[in-house]
Amino acid sequence: xxTAFDPIDLSGLRLPNRIAMAPMTRSRAYxxxxxxxxxxxxxxxxxxxxxxxxSEGVQPSAVGQGYPDTPGLHSEEQxxxxxxxxxAVHAEGGRIFAQLMHAGRIGHPDLLPGDLVxxxxxxxxxxxxxxxxxxxxxxxxxxxxxxxxxxxxxGEFVSAARNAIAAGFDGVELHGANGYLIQQFLxxxxxxxxxxxxxxxxxxxxxxxxxxKAVAAExxxxxxxxxxxxxxxxxxxxxxxxxxxxxxxVRELEPLGLAYLHILEGAPGHRELTLTLRKLFGGTIVLNxxxxxxxxxxxxxxxxxxxxxxxxxxxxFLANPDLPQRLATGGPFNAPDPATFFGGDDKGYLDYPxxxxxxxxx
Length: 362
Hints:
The protein is an alpha/beta fold and about 350 residues long. It contains eleven helices and 14 strands.
């Protein structure tokens, strides 16, 4: 029986276990031009025991930024700063993919340089507010991308992927989940286009397919992955019938030989769709499982029963830098502190103790 603590080959990259660190926004890119810092390198290096680290969302272009102090991969200084992070992770024996995240309509012009404004498939504003350095502000109506600009945006993903490899990442994951730009193309309430990028399930999936294909052509399919969240309602997404859209998407992706497909389940009731997509995809499935509370030890059975090939852990990995060891021993687990999730200093970032240190303190 395969367990979460068995190794796995990921397109030629040997992972010592099947426990992945999920991408988590931390809003601490305080370096020049939204670059990571020495603390960022220490944070990821602390968690190098993961089978795979997936970085926080990294904007592929300036207009793709959705939150304060999130990092980019579109300038030389950002590439150089990320090289310090990947070197630190590799020095500890780890493996790390960069998650490329264009926020689309999620954000605010106050977070963008110059006269840039938020863009999206259609001029449909998200409900709610976004935090900026000036405090909470209402989401704005984004500017609709023209056909030519859609193509240019795909090119920005390609350029950022190329930068990621230059920065030493082992691969990239395109963020097609959580209501950001790629999912905004997938969802019928955010994509009301009637051109080749919208109007049917296949057309709404086209942006995701073309972006993944273009990145794979640039850096290799074995170093390219996609994260999706079918039916998830985060950031005012409404996908009342996600099966048709996501089966169309996965059918297009399956022949490419991607590193993996990362599925974020919106609710336990979405497991049936997860299993359907697993059958369609055929390659490696990373699952961010829907559970009652943060994903914990109970989810390990999803590796054993074949539901997934790797499990990604978010908040529990944030608070437990040695999470694979803790899962193997049944804990104990540090409790995450939500007050320090976003922004701030190294408190709640670098000071969660490892198991041995915790034992000494106790």
